[in-house]
Amino acid sequence: MAVSAQPVAKERPRRTRTKRVSSLPALKLSQLPPSHIDLRDLLNAVLVCEDCGTWVPITGIKAKVQKLVPHHTGKAGVDAAIRCRSSNRVIKWDITIADWRNALADAITEASSRTATAVLPKAFSPQTDRILQARADRTPGGRKADWDKVLPHVAATDKHRQAVPAGDTPAESPAVPQTTLHPHTTR
What we know:
single chain; alpha+beta; two-stranded parallel ribbon; 3 helices; elongated; HNH endonuclease
């Protein structure tokens, strides 16, 4: 009995080895927010692409020219495979790692100062407190007595709403013209 071998994908090179360079101007690290750059592990340095907003590795760290790895704009396997225009964009290192760490620490401090504090409930005014206390003290019998007291007023209001005014004109409005109005033109 012959067993067929499972197809295995060919091993691919780990680094992009293209000589192509994007026609866009070089991306300066000092112009990016420090939170959009990750230089903790220099051999695996990544940053957020300005165009598509995805985290992209920087290739050629030990070479003369560092570039963004070619990448697509959408999510893998979900969106159409459209290459980002910032693929192979040159990176200009105009900031040291120590300066980046200091800028990142400052950014973290600033962001933590903007976070919301615990929300405290607003204190009740004395009048609101009295109303809430009165509602809590009411009994079902007291509520029924209140409804019985209000029902005659509700019935009278409903009866008043259903009343139609006497005559052919609505109450409190000008009379409706019975003849057709034709504008006269003067020459």
